[in-house]
Amino acid sequence: xxxxxxxxxxxxxxxxxxxxxxxxxxxxxxxxxxxxxxxxxxxxxxxxxxxxxxxxxxxxxxxxxxxxxxxxxxxxxxxxxxxx
Length: 84
What we know:
Order of helices and strands: HHH
Radius of gyration: 16 Å
Number of helices: 3
Strand content: under 5%
């Protein structure tokens, strides 16, 4: 995930004793792992279930993860609108 560390860093999530860059890189490893597992599962099941079925069943989880990300950025992140 190319933007994973940047999203984590802008959300203000850090590990104590580490710089923001180091902790964001370390915390992006679970995100990338989940992304890889999901991609492998999709490749395995896409022929059996079809794309439409997979998209419709995964859409609620994707929406929930974006709401959690937005809430994390709203409550712990920096206000980017004032810097421009």
